[in-house]
Amino acid sequence: MPTFHQIPVKENVRATRNALLLVLAVVLTGCASSPDVADRRQSPIPVYGTPVAGDNERVSRLQDVFDRYEGTPYRYGGTTARGFDCSGFIGQAYQEAFGMELPRTTSAMLSHGTPVSSRELQPGDVVFFRIRGKEQHAGIFMGGDDFIHASTSVGVTRSSLNGYYWRDRFTQARRFD
């Protein structure tokens, strides 16, 4: 078997490129998501929290942000209109809608805020999802069972917590006041 130095340069470059592509693929699964598919026959997540004063104002502010960025592409580590990852979009939305600065990453968000049960969700609560064995995706609850987020497949979008992909992956929610 030839040693590394005996392999032609073209093959070394190809092997290096393939290794980099594999690393990139692993990194990009950080805020993994998939578009909703038809509902399965399963109990829905109870997400209809009791409306509270100010819900309409919160939804209106978040909707304005969503309207501005809907369709913005997903970009790992992105925090601008050129591209967002899930936590980057949440941070931008909170900054624009409420003048609040949230922790930058999903894992940092998980250690802040007040835990909220799915039955107590209010618009603006941050919802978290387990993808590939760990909590690595998040979005902003909008009411009903809708949430807005930056999806790897379609960018900034609106999805249903009871959608085929998301229902079994919802793990918790946090409120940032």
UniProtKB/TrEMBL annotation:
GO molecular function, one term: cysteine-type peptidase activity
The keyword Protease is assigned to this record: yes
PANTHER family to which the protein is assigned, alphabetical: ENDOPEPTIDASE NLPC-RELATED (PTHR47360:SF1), MUREIN DD-ENDOPEPTIDASE MEPS/MUREIN LD-CARBOXYPEPTIDASE (PTHR47360)
Official protein name in the record: Probable lipoprotein NlpC
Superkingdom of the organism of origin: Bacteria
Record organism: Marinobacter segnicrescens
Any Gene Ontology biological process: proteolysis
Alphabetical list of PROSITE patterns matching this protein: NLPC_P60
Family label: Belongs to the peptidase C40 family.
Keywords associated with the record: Hydrolase, Lipoprotein, Protease, Signal, Thiol protease
Residue ranges annotated for the NlpC/P60 domain, each copy included: 56-177
Alphabetized InterPro entries for the sequence: Murein_DD/LD_carboxypeptidase (IPR052062), NLP_P60_dom (IPR000064), Papain-like_cys_pep_sf (IPR038765)
SUPFAM superfamilies associated with the record: Cysteine proteinases (SSF54001)
